[in-house]
Every structure is written in structure tokens, then in C-alpha cells.
# Entry
Amino acid sequence: MNQLPQRFPLSGLPDRVTIYEVGARDGLQNESGILPTPVKAEFLDRLTATGLSMIEATSFVHPKLVPQLADAELLLASHHPRAGVRYPVLVPNLRGYDRASSCGVSEIAVFASATETFAQKNLNTTVDGALTDIAAVMERATADNLWIRGYVSMCFGDPWEGPVEIDQVVAVVARLHELGCAEISLGDTIGTATPGHVHALIDALAQRGIGPDSLAVHFHDTYGQALTNSFTALQAGITTIDASAGGLGGCPFAKSATGNLATEDLVWQLSGLGIETGVDLRALAETSSWIARHLGRPVTSRAVQALTKG
# Structure
């Protein structure tokens, strides 16, 4: 079997895409088991060695809510970052920011919801309440000269409220943009997005003055649409795509959210399109197989399954 796809570029697509790797945070937070800190540190090292340039390292959510990531301080203290690689961390509130700041982080991610029900279940507040909390975090982070990313969950559907209106999503994204987020990731938390929906949301944001250079996309593969939706985002000018090594992840607060888009599947597609990522696909597949063994479960990525067969 050929180990890499043949390259057939298509016009109108970017020359290079940044993969925002979320496996070490969004991936591990949904696992039932808790990995030892040294294994997590080695996971970060292995992901770094594949050529990934953006790796979300951990989360400073309350340890009782996400015990899988309760060792955030210890992990960062034991991890040795590589020059030129960025390691943002997720912070939910000012308490989380204080913890992250004490570790000397330089980049953070904050998160909001497009729907009231998920804001209540995930953040124990309203959509507006979450944005108020984010504003307080961002005021501190901006004063500290940190780079800030924003996540918006439930952009394409909500398991409790059903379809989510595009205007509803645009309002939340616009608020994060006004607050000063350098990048805002559009989350398909339960994987219900389809290409036309993706295009419509990106177009509506452009009409609001929020162009693709300010956006990223975060697709879950519940209905097998993540790669197709990512390609649609590329056609719309998006150049940052979230993905998770081996397809790890989901959302502990939305049980219908299955795994993230597998980084290897994305790299395979981008490589075939002649789009540069800087990622060594074989090394990434080996890393995903390695972490899957530690988790005691198979890798869901189709590319990993094919590359490691035999």
C-alpha cells in the first residue's frame, strides 16, 4: 500500500493550513480513564515531534468537573516546550485564569455557547453570563499580553434545543470578536453540520465583518461529515482547522458528541490536495496508536487504521 496520497492540488484553496491539535485537551477530557501525568507529558512531546505547531496542552477547568485534566499545573511544570511550537491552554473563568497565569502561559482559549441550555449545563450560567465572565478573563489576559482564542460551542445544533439559528451564533461570535479574540473556533459540538450549513454560517459572519482570517472550525464526526465540512471551510477561506490525534474526544457535557475530526484523516486529505501542514503523517499515526494503547482502546482514525495495518 502507498503510505502517502498522490498530490493533486485544486485551485481556490489555501497553500498552507494550520492544524490546531486538541487531542491532549479535548481528546483526553472525554476519556473514562485518567492517564498519569508523565504519559500526558510524553504525549505532548510526541505530538510536537510530528511537526504540529499548535497543540492545546490542557485545561484549567475545575478538577472535580474534568478530573482527567486535574493535573494541569503539574503537567505544564513537567513539560518542556519546543521553540516555535505554541501550547495554548483552556481557561473557563478568572479562577482558571489565575491557575494558568501562575504557570506562566502565554496563550489561552476561552469558551462560550451559542445556546442557553448548553451554557447552563456546561458553564452553569446563561449565554450573556458566560460572555461577561469571558470579558473579565480577557481584560486580565490582554493586560498580560496573552494571545486569546475563543471557542463557540453548539454552532450547528444542540442536543436539547435542536437546530440553532445562524443569527444566534453570529451574535455570540461577534461579541467575542469585539472583546478582542484573535481567533474564534466554530464548534460543531454534536456533529450535525453539513456543507451548506457551514458555508451559510461563514458567509453570515463575513457579512458581519468577521472574515475567515479570524476564524477556525472544529468539527465532530458523529455523522461522518467532519472531513467534508472541513473542505467546505477551506473553500470559504478558513486556514485553521481543529483536529484531534486519532480522533480522540467528544464532550463530557453533551453525551451525543462523539469523537473529533481525526488529525491523520485531515492530514491525508490536505496532503492529497497539495496543502502544506508541516506534519509527518506516519509519525502522527504512530503517536495516536501509542496513546490509544495507553487508553486501552482502538484508534478511530481511518488513516491510522490503514497506515498501521500489517
In short: The chain has a mean pLDDT of 94. The two ends are 10 Å apart (CA to CA). Residues 18-307 form a domain with the TIM Barrel fold (CATH 3.20.20.70).
